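Risk mitigation, structural track. In case the binding assays with cobalt (II) ion fail to produce interpretable data, a predicted complex structure has been prepared as a fallback.
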Amino acid sequence: MSIRYVVQTGDPVLRQKCTEVKNFNKELCDLLDDMKVTVRAEQGAGLAAPQVGVPLRVVVIDVGEGYFELVNPVIISTKGEQTGAEGCLSVKGKQGTVTRPNKVKAEYRDRKGKKHKLTADGFFARAVCHELDHLDGILYTDKASEVYDLPPEDV
Ligand code: CO
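Fallback model:
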């Protein structure tokens, strides 16, 4: 497992429409393992494969409700609305205000190709929407009503 470089806004890979995973092979497992250590190292809530330069429909999410690996995820229904703050590991030093559904249901496959469903509320739903947008080349800054600079971190 190794931490991969997280590409920053301006890199064309972030604007690509990602392709579906067809081969549930070792390469996919390696990608998922690397994404896990990368999102943890960066202390992110989620990470999409194009953010590590791989234009495949793969995301990982961890917002404190368990660690999820979503391969070929699709949102099948949404409910309600929430407006709140959002950031992205590929848009460093910024945050924005984005309106998202308050609840989403999604279907996805795991690393072995097995189908699953999930229901997400609140911040988890926001993370699912944000990460799935990455797979279609969409950044939160495209949808934000405002984007602002974060104060520099006290380290
Ligand atoms: Co992001």
